[in-house]
Design a protein that fits this description.
Blueprint: H1 3-9, H2 18-28, H3 33-40, H4 45-53, E1 63-67, H5 73-80, E2 85-90, H6 93-97, E3 106-109, E4 123-132, H7 141-148, E5 149-160, H8 169-178, E6 182-193, E7 198-207
């Protein structure tokens, strides 16, 4: 599916620069429109990724980084399944301001296309849902996710099918496996936004 086809369904996918994306989200987040659209669209990414994650860990005290947390949809799912300790980061301050109070222990405004100001081997798990998509975060972020995740920790993410090859995610994932940076545990096609016929790859990898 081309970017033009998907862009006609979801306008933000037409945007190309980080600044354009940030401004769009800042407007989209007003008056709870973003959350309402996610419900209307039957956006299943957060539920699917957390459902996949809990197959591989039953420790609810681990520290989780929600990269591109938006309004906290992944955090809400994590809390629903009993997880207690998670930090969130997003590019849009408007979306961060919309996160339910006391859901995350820490929230930061971060551009995930840049280096993350977190020390090595810090988190037990990194989640990144809905952020690897058109005009958003590029595949180099996976190197940073590996860096900030403890050895034996997990990285769980979605990648919009429309950018998987165009943005080089296919090659990056293969290189990381071949260089023993991580081990594939799950990789499959997710429904993602089924109501708009937009799919994503859902991956879960163990850091080596």
């Amino acid at each position: 599916m081309s970017q033009k086809d998907i862009g006609n369904k979801i306008p933000i996918y037409k945007l190309k620069t980080t600044d354009e994306v940030m401004k769009y989200y800042d407007e989209w987040g007003k008056k709870d429109k973003y959350n309402k659209d996610m419900v209307d669209w039957n956006y299943t990414g957060p539920k699917e990724t957390v459902k996949t994650l809990i197959k591989y860990t039953d420790n609810k005290d681990i520290l989780i980084f929600d990269a591109g947390c938006g309004t906290g949809l992944v955090g809400t799912e994590l809390k629903r399944h009993g997880f207690k300790n998670f930090h969130g980061a997003d590019l849009s301050q408007t979306l961060l301001d919309s996160v339910p109070e006391n859901l995350y222990q820490k929230l930061d405004k971060v551009d995930l296309n840049q280096s993350i100001k977190t020390k090595d081997n810090y988190y037990d798990i990194v989640m990144c849902v809905g952020t690897f998509t058109f005009g958003h975060v590029k595949s180099l972020a996976l190197d940073e996710f590996i860096r900030i995740t403890k050895k034996g920790g997990l990285i769980c993410f979605t990648i919009n099918e429309g950018i998987f090859e165009d943005y080089g995610f296919d090659k990056k994932i293969k290189d990381l496996k071949e260089n023993n940076k991580w081990q594939e545990l799950e990789f499959f096609k997710s429904d993602y936004i089924a109501s708009k016929n937009v799919n994503a790859w859902l991956g879960l990898f163990k850091v080596q």
